[in-house]
Amino acid sequence: MSVFDPVDTSLKFPHLEAEILAFWKANDIFHKSLKQREGRPTWVFYEGPPTANGKPHPGHVLTRVVKDLFPRYKTMRGFRVPRKAGWDTHGLPVEVEVEKELKISGKNEIEAYGVERFVRRCIDSVFRYTDAWEELTERIGFWIDLPEAYVTYHRSYVESVWWSLQQLFERKLLYQGHKILPWCPRCRTALSSHEVGQGYAEVEDPSVYVTFRDPEWEKNKTSFLAWTTTPWTLPSNAGLAVKADTEYSHVRVGDETLIMASALVKSVMGKVKHEVVKTEPGHALVGRRYQPLFDWWKGRDSQRAAAWRVCAADFVTLDTGAGIVHIAPAFGADDYNLGQKEGLPTIQLVDAGGHFTPECGAFAGRFVKDADNDIVKDLRSRGLLLKRESYRHDYPFCWRCDSPLIYFARECWFIRTTQEIGRVIENNQTVHWIPEHIRDGRFGNFLESNIDWALSRERYWGTPLPIWKCPGCHYMEAVGSLEELRGKEGVEGLDVFDRAKAADPGLNEHLRIHKPWIDAVEYDCPVCSLRLKRVPEVIDCWYDSGAMPFAQWGYPHAPGSKERFAEAFPADFISEAIDQTRGWFYSLIAESTLLGESFGRASGVAKPYPHPFKTCVVLGHVCDEEGEKMSKHKGNYL
């Protein structure tokens, strides 16, 4: 007779897993594990908040398993490891999905549908698949506190974000500026540089060599030769740029003479018969004028007098093209800066939807990227095209709607990250990155090329930018909470939400500080006799996610939030996939670095680097059968 019970050789692992999960759930083992560790050293974990408006996929299994592994191990080593869940609820990802559901597209159709109705649909959308996410979380054994999850649209969270933006505004790190921005013409809003980094795809664009004729062309047959891969910007051309210290050649081709950099004559002309008849330095070309390719723009006489002339620029290179750069200040950062320096007008013959404006003749109303080929044909028909080639390169697309982006001169609110980037880089150097090469490689390189964070979005469902502005004297101030707003002199409009809720008691109380209700609030200008009104923009949802170390507690307004934040900052561990180097990882470290002094003043505790996280485990992607990253956006998973 055997001493031991017989071993079942037909083990059914899914059945065993289900039994263990049922035991954990029935006995509340996760919370018991936390209670057992009360009074022990705390090991801090931050959960990167997912958006539950799409179903989870196998890629989420990988990240959630890793995010469970380390906290579970540290718990076994005797640490107390609170694990607060979170939900990311704002932004374009939500708006685009709601547009699809409603079978509408773009801001005009959203406004026709009604902003209030649209926002309410957004809030319904963000938790559509919560059950699926919770089921996945439980099924893989990821221990995290879902009932206590932070939610980025909740009033306490939004007011915490408002406080942080008020701190930046008062330190002149939040400002309004007019710059060239990556712009989604379908969503009609700007994107930040880290959003742009998530949406590149290889495309083939026309590469054209265009002749800009001398004003006396009928007599001298002389033209400047410039190269571009964006023919759609040519109608908005305002200048040409040359390199002052470079030699330029006058090249005779048939009965015409083309001016181009001497170093590029052979590569441009190839086997075409030509003769160099004259050379001169680039600075000798500066100030010369030429005829516009398209004379559609009807600017003032003084503006037209300043346009269509040659300027010198350091960014002109001799590795491609003809050594002469077509300048459209409305559509390129270098172009815009040169235009400001040289007094070139900003000719913008494209509207916010990416369509040519009414004065553009047969091209009026056409989407610019769709018009490239016809613009090239038009130039060829008028003898203004030397040659056309194809150019394969990576081009940015909207990370949520897949529309091609354009670079567009637009007014926007920015965070002055460039002023503080040295401190961000210093902070990054103290983080323990796994793998280590992320620190100075993918993430470090991104920080080195930092530009100011384009924060505002001309959209609807997001944290409202808490800036109130006077339409008369232009005085502006940032508001840090609803209570602060209630205390403003002559405040009106706070009852608009109350009336809406009285009419519909089911209206979510957290919407009180969202568009469109918050837009009704105005108060007396402290400088003049007019009234301050909120600027219309909402903010980049990546700022919301980067605010979670402090906003999850409602810091600094909520009772006990200062103590909770001090106990849980910085995190000992975070982990997400590699695409978050330009997403959550960046927003976390940028905000924490810029707000470090404010945390010290509000809580009396200044934390040394690294913060807001000490260790970051960076994961790869789970891909589909085509080798593409699985994503909720693409839906390329079962």
Strand proportion, as a percent range, falls in 15-25%
Uncertain stretches of 5 or more adjacent residues: none
Residue-averaged pLDDT, rounded? 91
Number of helices: 23
Distance between the termini: 51 Å
Q: Rg, please?
A: 29 Å
Name the overall outline: globular
Q: Within the largest sheet, what's the order of strands?
A: 10-8-9-6-5-13
Number of strands: 24
* Estimated structural class: alpha+beta
| Helix amount | 25-40%
Largest sheet: number of strands, sense, barrel closure: 6 strands, mixed
Short characterization:
With 638 residues, this protein is an alpha+beta fold. Helix 4 (92-102) crosses helix 6 (115-125) and helix 15 (417-429) packs across helix 23.
Q: What does this molecule look like?
A:
With 638 residues, this protein is an alpha+beta fold. The chain has a 6-stranded mixed beta sheet with strand order 10-8-9-6-5-13, with helices on one face. Helix 4 crosses helix 6. The mean pLDDT is 91.
Ordered list of secondary-structure elements with their pairings:
Elements: H1 13-26, H2 29-36, H3 58-76, E1 84-87, H4 92-102, H5 107-113, H6 115-125, H7 130-139, E2 145-151, H8 155-170, E3 174-184, E4 189-190, H9 193-196, E5 200-213, H10 217-220, E6 222-228, E7 239-242, E8 247-253, E9 256-261, H11 265-269, E10 275-281, H12 301-306, E11 309-312, E12 324-327, H13 333-342, H14 372-381, E13 385-396, E14 406-415, H15 417-429, E15 432-434, H16 437-440, H17 442-448, E16 453-454, E17 456-457, E18 467-469, E19 476-478, H18 482-486, H19 495-503, E20 522-524, E21 531-534, E22 538-539, H20 541-546, H21 548-551, H22 561-567, E23 574-577, H23 584-603, E24 615-619
Parallel strand pairs: 1-2, 6-9, 7-11, 15-24, 23-24
Antiparallel strand pairs: 3-4, 3-14, 5-6, 5-13, 7-12, 8-9, 8-10, 14-16, 17-22, 18-19, 18-21, 20-21
Helix pairs in contact: 4-6, 15-23
